[in-house]
Amino acid sequence: MNRPPPPVWRSILYVPGNVPKFIDKAHERGADCVLVDLEDSVTPAEKPVARAMLPETMAKVVRGGADVAVRINRPMRLAIPDLEAAVRPGLSALFITKTEGVQHLRLLDEAVSELEHERGMLPGGVGFAAMIEHPRALAHLDDIAAHAPRLVAMMLGGEDFALETGSIPGDETLELPKRLVAFAAQAHGVAMIGILGTVADYSDPAAYRESAERARRFGFSGGTCVHPGLVQALNDAFTPSADEIAQARRLIAADEKAATDGRGSFTVDGKMIDVPVIDRARRLLRRHDAIDRRMKS
After folding, report:
1. Is the pLDDT of residue 1 over 70?
2. Which of the ends of the chain has fewer CB neighbours closer than 10 A, N or C?
3. Which CATH class is domain 11-237?
């Protein structure tokens, strides 16, 4: 199955695709990925304008080293012109709104593959981030995570999901569906994007960071924001701390010493350490190294 390498996206900053004052400053915000929106933040009358701007927009937002992704529309009659405008050299991923099944993503994969070929791009280089926005999709999460082409990330579109379920978006109402999406993504090595709450409220960066830190404890790898003032909160929350890194290295060193003594488990600070703990430490260091490489590139 054709899937690009998993991205290192601690922070994903939404930028309306038709608002130059936001586009021009996006590269200064420190986001790992700038997500140019062609969907809800752009009115129907302005969508052709946003598409026409995309070549210049994409060139602008990557100037600070961020990846660039584009959120496309659904239905298909809007998605196809979005793809025609967005799929060009430099595009990292497409965020697929209202994903409900693998067949939907296979149809888009066919169109993207044709465009990559026509435009001299690396075949399969553009990733898909599946946005789950309707309760119908919950029955297909594992199938999407296991079999969808190009899939590099999954997330719950909280505002739309709340609308479709008649609920008020917030920590209590969105945690369960977000964790269901996360379980499917994690079962198949796909990045899970989001925080355990809603992205609409940007008035309290400290609370936003706390929600993002909680999401990382549940295995989420990054979050989205609609305000540039929250980018640093996401970067901080989804970056392993110096204490975590030091502890992971200490555990691995102790494991190596125990192995020379023929022991598979041992204690550190009065706690039993065995294989899952060491594997978790190694994963944390791999994550740290991937973030470090990204920041130096």
Report:
1. no
2. C
3. alpha beta
